[in-house]
């Protein structure tokens, strides 16, 4: 039986794996490897035809996972994702229409932002938790550090171009609760179905929560 919906996706783990699944058969063993490695929140991006079926399989077979849908950009995708079992939603950006659909879905959501004005607009609408995307291209840690002064109430999950070398720098920021990334899912490991390697990389990523005090 799945655990209750999280109050906040941001507090489940220091890293949220951003997963692109081409073959539905990979969904369950991949999710199990990530969860065993200490990364329970799994964002399955809606970039492939297999994505919704992958979410459905993970939700049904890996109850200890908190599976979500990423790259959500339309209300129809919101509805289809929740129907498939997604327990949170992530978008690369947002509009009023998309935000209304995500809010009505009943599950936690992280709308994407890359500018100060977008952050302020979400705060006006009562949304405090956001995805910062594309993190590296949009200004990285320097940009987020600058945002914390005037907008300390906003909390972020930066995603886009982040790897194990840079993740600790993001996690050291007071307005960053977790980061998103795919480095624990190297293409050759997934192609070879080397779930042991994925689990080991996930465990290393999960340990990054201890890096805050060291940065």
From TrEMBL:
- Where does the chain cross the membrane? none
Protein's name in the database: 2-dehydro-3-deoxy-phosphogluconate aldolase
Q: Which InterPro entries match?
A: Aldlse_KDPG_KHG (IPR000887), Aldolase_TIM (IPR013785), KDPG/KHG_AS_1 (IPR031337), KDPG/KHG_AS_2 (IPR031338)
Ranked from the top, the taxonomy reads: Bacteria, Bacillati, Actinomycetota, Actinomycetes, Kitasatosporales
Q: Which family does it belong to?
A: Belongs to the KHG/KDPG aldolase family.
Q: Which pathway does it operate in?
A: Carbohydrate acid metabolism; 2-dehydro-3-deoxy-D-gluconate degradation; D-glyceraldehyde 3-phosphate and pyruvate from 2-dehydro-3-deoxy-D-gluconate: step 2/2
Subunit architecture: Homotrimer.
Gene assigned in the entry? eda
Question: Which keywords, in A-to-Z order, does the entry hold?
Answer: Carbohydrate metabolism, Lyase, Schiff base
PANTHER family for the chain: 2-DEHYDRO-3-DEOXY-6-PHOSPHOGALACTONATE ALDOLASE-RELATED (PTHR30246:SF1), 2-KETO-3-DEOXY-6-PHOSPHOGLUCONATE ALDOLASE (PTHR30246)
């Amino acid at each position: 039986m799945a655990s209750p919906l999280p109050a906040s996706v941001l507090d489940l783990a220091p890293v949220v794996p951003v997963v692109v699944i081409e073959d539905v058969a990979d969904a369950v063993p991949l999710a199990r490897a990530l969860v065993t490695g200490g990364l329970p929140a799994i964002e399955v991006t809606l970039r492939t035809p297999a994505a919704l079926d992958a979410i459905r399989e993970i939700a049904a077979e890996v109850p200890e996972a908190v599976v979500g849908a990423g790259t959500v950009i339309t209300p129809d995708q919101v509805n289809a994702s929740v129907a498939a079992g997604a327990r949170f939603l992530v978008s690369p950006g947002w509009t009023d229409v998309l935000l209304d659909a995500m809010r009505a879905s009943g599950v936690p959501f992280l709308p994407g932002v890359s500018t100060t004005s977008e952050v302020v607009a979400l705060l006006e609408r009562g949304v405090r938790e956001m995805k910062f995307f594309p993190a590296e291209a949009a200004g990285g840690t320097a940009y987020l550090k600058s945002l914390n002064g005037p907008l300390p109430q906003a909390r972020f999950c930066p995603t886009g171009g982040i790897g194990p070398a840079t993740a600790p720098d993001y996690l050291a920021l007071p307005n960053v609760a977790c980061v998103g990334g795919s480095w624990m899912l190297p293409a050759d490991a997934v192609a070879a179905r080397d779930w042991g390697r994925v689990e080991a990389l996930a465990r290393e990523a999960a340990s990054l929560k201890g890096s805050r005090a060291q940065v």
